[in-house]
């Protein structure tokens, strides 16, 4: 992990920035924990406490979360370029302060949806900035490994918290005890972000100064140009954006619909908690390897294989019944997602110039987390109209199609094999 020295003595690389990088890994684990407090409990809360019988109504909290987080991601990139990464990170934690209390004691479903709007803003600001800051610190050579460590911390914490809240709910009830864990995460994360995290924007500027000289039109893009390039015109960036959307579309299914399917077949809250944790646990741990692996074998093959593996796993949930088979499907889904998740972020870091990279990350994450909203709406409407398994089969087919789009459309972006310009 060699370090590169940029302008004003700023050093790029994981080893040169190990203390700050490790601190940001911990902060992102706390970001993931805030999301994990909902994974097991909220679908059951909708059913058992608020008696929402329609899937579409029950999944409104994921729709609210996904739509809010997607839009916030976009602004997080622009704001972190304008004002710095650290102020945006701290703002994200301040906005989340009411969330655990709203989830734990909110008197109506509207309170739960409102809490998820705030949680979406929190996740959009904090997760986006920790991603951007780690890309800033890591430099170009270990970008996949850096994203793997970031996402492993976040989703490892999602898994651990989903299991812990499932166990708490089994013994103490669905509210408020499981959400007190989120309150503890929040206090710790805000303190670390305020007093220990340091600004990284100068690292991005140092890397930009080391880049080969490019024409101003390649370097000085407006936000609208960044959005168009990331969404449509660059083959790698746009393929990554659609794959990210479909990935989180199927994550919305796993979050909101799978627990209801498992409960309908007689599984206990604790068993559902184990299944809800298995998928992000494998996803989180797998990224420790897959991000690094993509630095060595390339991005395209891992993304394509990961989307197809996710599709097979979702089909297995739809086709089967019983704890052992569903556990196997959750493990496969976690492996597929681990192949995809850090690798897509690495593609954005590979292709985007440091001068507009934070905004490209924001646009990509706008599309990716928009998948939560699309997935919640699609799964809810299909489950209400045709049944829960029909919704799951549809998402399996969409995920396979997304993998094929990547295989056909994208080009390899891994830095030491990528030359020339691709439009």
Characterization of the model:
The chain starts with a strand and ends in a 14-residue tail after the last helix. Strand 1 and strand 2 form a beta hairpin. Strands 1-2 form a two-stranded antiparallel sheet. With 423 residues, it is mostly helical. It is built from 19 helices and two strands. Helix 13 (235-256) packs across helix 18 (357-386) and helix 16 (300-319) runs antiparallel to helix 17 (323-351). It has a single domain, classed as Growth Hormone, Chain: A.
Topology:
Layout: E1 4-5, E2 11-12, H1 18-39, H2 41-48, H3 55-58, H4 60-83, H5 85-95, H6 99-105, H7 109-138, H8 143-172, H9 177-195, H10 201-210, H11 216-219, H12 223-233, H13 235-256, H14 258-264, H15 269-297, H16 300-319, H17 323-351, H18 357-386, H19 388-409
Antiparallel strand pairs: 1-2
Distance between the first and last residues' Cα? 31 Å
Reported for the largest beta sheet, the result is:
2 strands, antiparallel
Which strand order do you get reading across the main beta sheet? 1-2
Q: Give the strand content.
A: under 5%
Q: What structural class should be given to the helix and strand makeup? A: mainly alpha
Rounded radius of gyration (Å) = 20 Å
Q: What is the third-level CATH name, the topology?
A: Growth Hormone, Chain: A
- Contiguous low-pLDDT stretches (5 residues minimum) are 417-423
CATH architecture annotation name = Up-down Bundle
Total count of domains: 1
Nearest-integer average pLDDT? 90
């Amino acid at each position: 992990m060699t370090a590169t020295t940029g302008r004003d003595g700023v050093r790029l690389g994981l080893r040169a920035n190990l203390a700050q990088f490790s601190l940001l890994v911990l902060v992102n684990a706390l970001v993931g924990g805030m999301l994990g407090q909902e994974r097991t409990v909220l679908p059951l809360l909708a059913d058992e406490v608020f008696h929402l019988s329609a899937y579409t109504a029950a999944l409104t909290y994921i729709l609210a979360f996904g739509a809010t987080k997607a839009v916030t991601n976009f602004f997080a990139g622009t704001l972190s370029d304008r004002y710095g990464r650290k102020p945006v990170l701290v703002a994200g934690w301040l906005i989340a302060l009411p969330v655990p209390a709203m989830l734990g004691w909110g008197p109506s479903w509207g309170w739960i949806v409102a809490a998820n709007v705030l949680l979406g803003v929190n996740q959009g600001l904090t997760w986006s900035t920790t991603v951007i800051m780690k890309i800033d610190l890591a430099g170009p050579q270990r970008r996949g490994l850096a994203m793997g460590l970031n996402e492993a911390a976040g989703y490892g914490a999602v898994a651990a918290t989903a299991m812990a809240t499932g166990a708490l709910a089994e013994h103490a009830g669905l509210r408020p005890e499981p959400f007190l864990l989120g309150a503890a995460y929040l206090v710790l994360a805000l303190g670390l972000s305020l007093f220990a995290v340091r600004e990284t924007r100068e690292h991005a500027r140092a890397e930009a100064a080391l880049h080969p000289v490019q024409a101003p039109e390649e370097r000085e893009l407006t936000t609208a140009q960044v959005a168009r390039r990331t969404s449509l015109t660059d083959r790698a960036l746009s393929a990554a954006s659609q794959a990210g959307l479909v990935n989180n579309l199927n994550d919305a299914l796993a979050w909101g619909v799978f627990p209801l399917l498992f409960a309908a077949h007689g599984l206990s809250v604790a068993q559902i908690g184990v299944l809800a944790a298995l998928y992000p646990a494998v996803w989180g741990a797998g990224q420790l390897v897959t991000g690094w692996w993509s630095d060595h074998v390339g991005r395209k093959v891992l993304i394509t294989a990961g989307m197809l593996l996710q599709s097979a796993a979702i089909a297995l949930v739809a086709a089967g019944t019983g704890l052992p088979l569903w556990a196997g499907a959750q493990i496969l889904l976690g492996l597929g997602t681990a192949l995809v998740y850090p690798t897509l972020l690495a593609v954005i870091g590979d292709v985007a110039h440091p001068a507009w990279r934070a905004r490209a990350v924001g646009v990509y994450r706008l599309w990716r987390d928009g998948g939560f909203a699309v997935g919640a709406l699609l799964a809810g409407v299909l489950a209400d109209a045709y049944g829960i398994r029909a919704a799951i089969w549809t998402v399996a087919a969409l995920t396979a199609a997304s993998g094929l789009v990547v295989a056909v459309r994208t080009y390899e972006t891994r830095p030491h094999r990528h030359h020339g310009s691709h439009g």
